[in-house]
Write a structure and sequence with these properties.
single chain, 773 residues, alpha/beta, DNA-binding
DNA sequence: TAGTTGGGTTTTTTT
DNA sequence: AACCCAACTA
């Protein structure tokens, strides 16, 4: 069984007792190691019941289960192979009552949390213009990741007004969730730790149970998860963590890279194993990845190697704009797929931000390529799905005020804000849940004739609940949609939109049917559970040959023969935020992301970047990504486009954050971080010129370059066209200049385009080209 | 109460 | 460009 393992992998497999740190580089066969380790434990007579393996996604868990089953035959059933969140839900469903929740608590997603916070802010009279819900929620999330409860948060905030307000909001938010018998994602971890700390009996039982614990993607665990693992493993636990500090990319959601860097400090007697042979990528790809990541400081020293051939050079492509980039990628994948349709499934397009998917998707449709966009709006957070689920959750747990309020007037039942406020008032006065107050609508005097609408709603929910006794859940969903006339909610939408929504509801019904096929005995609560923790990537089925489009984050842990990296530009990847950040660690995290991206590729890697790109409605002129410039030229089939000016630093700069490759006009000569001018929307003057490393104070940063600059767009001066001239625009085609007037920073030009009609734009970045007649 | 409009804000990444 | 919210109108 172990013949396929290399020496190091074997070492990790055999070290079953005591703490083990396995530093596993990208593509070094860590899943193979983990599955064999589980198989080995079983072979040695360890009861499957005593094994726990924690993976990053449900998809990874499913795959690991399959591989274990294949190794040992079907008997891995009782092994817990799950994600952190799923394990915690399982534990809390059993014991949440010991920390003051009902065991059938609801799980709130980000959307739900935001609604609660909106309410909280209203109650506390927090001006959300000054202190945004998002900001509060992310502070709370950060606190929970660090296991900081509200009272401690408040104590730490002492003296700081802003933090003090957040502390109040945190406290109120937590109380609201509790009275709705709900937990958010972070609670799932934090409350489990709380449970273990509060209840020795429960902890003891789980410690006895999970005698062998393995944690995959360990570099992305946060403090709460680390505590959880420590508690479970106990003092003498057999804990094996597997990870790669170079692939730590989830700092924004609390991942603490110190967990892996300091593991040996927490467990001084840990066995350390390094998996450094890469089985995935060609040598060129691996060399590129190594070159990029070597620019990071403060990483565990390691060098990945391969005995594979060099393979193709890395393809580097420059485009004028994102549209052409999309066109190219789609046509390339189309070309591969036409030769062999199976190839579609071996291709992936990766990008930094979800917003980039749209244009790519359009081209994929155009080319008729089978594809799937992973991520973006999660299936379960679509409006119609959330509504239906809110019905189901209300039927399941009417204590969940949020869900009740979501659907009480969806579709329209003539129940408005005033009525809801009155009911809430009554509920508060009598310490009832919102739904309980609804049940007593007749007793609320202020309601008047609105009361009948509420009683009708309550009895409708009751009917649904009783129907569940006699019909399956999928049938019930149909009944809900029909009897509430749910689709009337979307009367104002286009046929296309409505069709999409119907498709989604059908898809939900399919998922319900599929779920009950696997779990015939499951309750409604079980289904809602299942649904709460699905990530988009979990939904990607194996064996369907279609190209995948997704963010680099989603691609973590996956591999593809052909990887296309779109949008390799400074300002997009790495993002502006990290470029301008004064914390050098931020850019390092981006670089790790680049490393993850590159190492997804097995056979070919294509890097794409565009001269211009629309970002948030603004045209941007970006320099090639510094990460591209960090790849040795010899590995590339093309040169990185020459910047306009020659004074730029050469590729491979590692201290790139020390000198900003370009600057916004606001900072010229000041050498400081650009500060947005308050009250002033960014004007086109801040458009980043297409230069790499122009440096501070460079004239080109102002666009005052001679030569092939934006044609006719010399700022400060009058363009070389005038009213009455014919001009050409890259995107809009040809048109007639109908107006031209000087603005505060730039000329404003109005053009009547032949194809798309009239547009008003700033001369500096419209790049209009005069057509001589 | 429902529907519309205008203004302001935003996303980088997700369980 | 897309989204969200508050204010206004019917």
């Amino acid at each position: 069984m172990f013949d396929t393992l290399n020496e190091e992998q074997k070492k990790a497999v055999l070290a079953t007792e005591g703490p083990v740190l396995c530093l596993a580089g990208a593509g070094s066969g860590k899943t193979r190691m983990l599955t064999h380790r589980i198989a080995y434990l079983l072979e040695r007579g360890v009861d499957p019941y005593n094994i726990m393996a924690i993976t990053f996604t449900n998809k990874a868990a499913g795959e690991m289960k399959e591989r274990v089953d294949r190794l040992i035959g079907e008997n891995g059933g009782s092994i817990w192979i799950t994600t952190f969140h799923s394990s915690c839900v399982r534990i809390l469903r059993r014991y949440a009552d010991r920390i003051g929740y009902d065991n059938n608590f609801s799980i709130y997603d980000t959307d739900d949390s935001k609604s609660v916070m909106r309410d909280v802010c209203k109650r506390l009279r927090i001006d959300t213009k000054i202190l945004r819900e998002r900001a509060i929620l992310s502070a709370i999330s950060g606190a929970k990741d660090e296991l900081v409860p509200p009272d401690e948060f408040r104590a730490r905030a002492a003296g700081d007004f802003r933090m003090g307000r957040i502390a109040e909001a945190y406290d109120e938010y937590q109380k609201t969730l509790k009275s709705s018998n709900a937990m958010d994602f972070d609670d799932l971890i934090m409350k489990t730790v709380e449970l273990f700390k509060a209840d020795g009996e429960v902890l003891d039982s789980y410690q006895k149970r999970f005698r062998y614990i393995m944690v995959d993607e360990y570099q992305d665990t946060n403090t709460a998860q680390f505590q959880l693992i420590r508690l479970l493993a106990g003092e003498k636990g057999n804990l094996c963590v597997v990870g790669d500090d170079d692939q730590s990319i989830y700092k924004f959601r609390g991942a603490n890279i110190r967990n892996i860097l300091d593991f040996e400090h927490y467990y001084p007697d840990a066995t350390v194993v390094r998996l450094e042979q890469n089985y995935r990528s060609t040598r060129n790809i691996l060399d590129a990845a190594n070159a990029v990541i070597s620019n990071n400081v403060g990483r565990k020293d390691k060098s990945l190697w391969t005995d594979k051939d060099k393979g193709e050079q890395i393809h580097l492509k420059l485009f004028d704009n994102a549209y052409e980039e999309a066109e190219y990628i789609a046509s390339e994948i189309g070309r591969r797929g036409r030769k062999d349709p199976g190839e579609f499934g071996n291709c992936a397009v990766l990008y930094r931000t979800n917003a980039q998917s749209r244009m790519l998707e359009e081209r994929f449709v155009y080319e008729g390529i089978p594809y799937k966009v992973v991520g973006g709006v999660n299936f379960y957070s679509r409006r119609e799905i959330k509504d239906i689920l809110a019905y189901l959750r209300t039927i399941d747990n009417a204590r969940d005020d949020l869900q009740v309020k979501r659907i009480i007037n969806v579709p329209r039942r003539g129940i408005g804000a005033t009525t809801i406020a009155k009911v809430q008032e009554y509920a508060d006065a009598y310490a009832l849940s919102f739904y309980e107050a609804l049940e007593r609508a007749d007793e609320i005097p202020s309601l008047g004739k609105a009361a009948s609408k509420l009683t009708a709603f309550v009895s409708m929910i009751r009917v649904f609940r009783s129907k569940l006794e006699v019909m399956t859940l999928d049938k019930l969903v149909r009944v809900i949609v029909d009897e509430t006339d749910y689709m009337s909610e979307f009367d104002s939408e286009t046929d296309e939109e409505i069709e999409g929504r119907i498709e989604n509801i059908d898809e939900l019904i399919n998922k319900i049917v599929a779920f009950y096929e696997v779990n015939p005995e499951a309750t409604l609560g079980d289904f809602l559970n299942e649904v709460a923790l699905v990530a988009d990537i979990d939904e990607v089925e194996e064996g369907v040959p279609r190209a995948l489009l997704m963010t680099i984050h989603s691609a973590k842990g996956l591999e593809f023969d052909h990887v296309y990296l779109a949008g390799m530009e400074d300002g997009l990847f790495p993002s502006d935020m990290t470029i301008t950040s004064d914390n050098p660690q931020d850019i390092e995290e981006e670089r790790r992301l680049a490393y993850v991206a590159i190492t997804r590729a097995k056979e070919t890697l294509t890097l794409c970047y565009a001269r211009t790109r629309m970002i948030r409605g603004e045209t941007r002129y970006n320099a090639p990504s510094r990460f591209v410039r960090e790849i040795p030229e010899i590995l590339l089939d093309n040169r990185v486009a020459k910047p306009r000016r020659e004074e730029e630093p050469s590729p491979g700069i590692s201290d790139s954050f020390a000198r900003k490759p370009y600057s916004s006009p606001y900072e010229i000569g000041s050498g400081r971080k650009p500060v947005a001018v308050p009250g002033k929307k960014e004007t086109p003057a801040s458009v980043k010129p297409y230069i790499a490393g122009g440096g501070l104070g460079s004239l080109s940063a102002l666009g005052v370059t001679k030569g092939p600059g934006p044609v006719g767009g010399v700022k400060g001066g009058k363009p070389d066209y005038d009213i009455g001239d014919r001009v050409r625009h890259v995107k809009f085609g040809e048109g007639l200049v109908t107006d031209l007037e000087p603005g505060p920073r730039d000329y404003k030009v109005t053009v009547d385009f032949d194809e798309v009609g009239q547009k008003v734009m700033y001369a500096a970045f419209a790049k209009l080209e005069k057509i001589e007649i």
